[in-house]
Design a protein that fits this description.
This protein has 7 helices and no strands. The protein has 245 residues and is an all-alpha fold. α1 runs antiparallel to α3 (63-93). The relative contact order is 0.18. Pfam families: CbtA (PF09490).
Amino acid sequence: MPLKLSFGRLLTAGLLAGLIAGLLAGGFAYLTGEPRIDAAIAIEEQNTLAHGAAGGGEELVSRETQKNIGLTLATTLYGIALGGFLATAYALLRRRLHTSSDTRAALGLATAALTGIVLIPWLKYPPNPPAVGDPATIRQRTISYLALLALGLVAIWAGVLAARTQTQEWRRATAGTLAFLIVVTIAYTLLPATNEVPDTFPADLLWQFRLASLGTQVVLFSALGLAFAGLLHRLATSKPATVDA
């Protein structure tokens, strides 16, 4: 039976889980992503000098500050925000998740979020290092990315609804998968493709950066789901038992 906790306690658990996840993701990004960003920036500076242009001028925030403080601060704040959203989603959707396990409910929501707002956009619009891309198309790329992010969540929702129209397990899996893939295929077909990576940019460096970026998100959402589930379990075992009848 699902726990019956006040929204304040759920939100506190979500924010704490987000803090933990953000710190872990920041550490992962520092170890795997920052060396690739440094390499990409070095290539950009070499290209700038080769074309006889002046340097980029004085930085508003130094690169070292960005790496050592800015990165961890950004992932931590992002994790805390996601933790708040996860707790809110849990409070609103818990009764509709059709599971008696709070751990499965928490991990299911985190997995759905990872799939809808990370994996689906990543496959269509994989991230590029900061030194790659045309600044003139930032607005168009941002709109396309946000549209795909929303459609990714719609795909998850469509898959769940389709699965619940069936009674047999294999039919639920088939219906859910088909509905999910139909929405994703439509989204991928309608939204424009972008490829602004210069042919001269090292393919292995680009691939390593993209994997590091995806790995950071996987660490973040995995840690968020596990930490939130763990905190829910702690609340369930430390408080006087109050559950839904």
